Amino acid sequence: MLVSLNEVLKIGREKGIGVPAINTPNFETIIAAIEVAEELNIPLILTHAQLHEEVIAIETIGPAMLEYAKRAKIPVCVHLDHGESFDFCKKAIAMGFTSVMIDASAYPYDENVRITKEVVDYAHAHGVSVEAELGQLPNRESGVGNDLIAESHYTDANLVPDFVNKTNVDALAIAFGTAHGIYKVKPVLNIDIIKRVRAKSNVYLVMHGGSGLTHEDYRNAIEAGINKINYYTYMSYQGYAAAKALVEKEPTGFFHDICKVGMEAQKEKLREIMKVFADL
Q: Beta strand 44-49 with 226-231: parallel, antiparallel or unpaired?
């Protein structure tokens, strides 16, 4: 069933689950995510990242995300990930997305507050939840070293109550040592930041850059107060590896065979990681 971000995160908080938020830039990943979540009977968030517009447009993938969410046997939120502008957030809301993220974290604090509040006011008037970000996550896809995750990037827990009160945001992505993309060196997480933020606010907390961590890292983060975990990279890499192995084994074949083997490999990875998120 299609529900809001607040609804799935409320269920997750009650059950001690880190609700998985899976980027779905193709049809096969939508199916994989929903089938595994239904199998494990846990709530799910399907996300379209604005940076994936060059892979597939929201106008193309969005209706499929929404239709499969409505058909699902478990609560599913359809969410815009890292929306870069008010206009793009409005586009997602008009399509029927039940949650949007506005990422103004690269701006000065007061501008982040202003932009976030503008989106929240509009979204809430349309019954849509909003996630924002406070602190900054580096992008590891370029292979930058762990020493570039400076403390200046981390979320300042003392700013959280003010940010939440001024914006009325529903969920907050915080920076505590994770990064987007592939890790070239082992990340060092500052779990105390999560605890400090949680002590100051009851807002739902989000972990971005969730791929590549240990199972213990995930559970520690969830137990400290993380409610939503974005996950994509390593799942997608496993699907790619399975498709590559098939092509190398059978150089001639049908494209749908590649899609199927890639989807099954993604399901295998999702099953593993969702069990960790749900402590199953």
A: unpaired
Report all structural domains of the chain as residue ranges with CATH numbers, in order of start. Answer: 5-277 (3.20.20.70)
Secondary structure (3-state) at 162: helix
Residues 171-213: tens digit of each pLDDT: 999 998 876 555 455 567 899 999 999 999 999 999 997 667 8
> Residue 135: what pLDDT?
83
Which residues are annotated as catalytic? Answer: 81
Instruction: Name the E strands within the chain.
Output: 19-23, 44-49, 76-83, 99-102, 129-134, 171-174, 204-207, 226-231
Best CA proximity match to 270, nearest among 248, 243, 244, 238: 238
Record the tokens describing residue 145, joined without a space.
């070293």
Packing angle, helices 215-224 and 191-200, rounded to 10: 20
Flag whether pLDDT at 57 surpasses 90.
yes
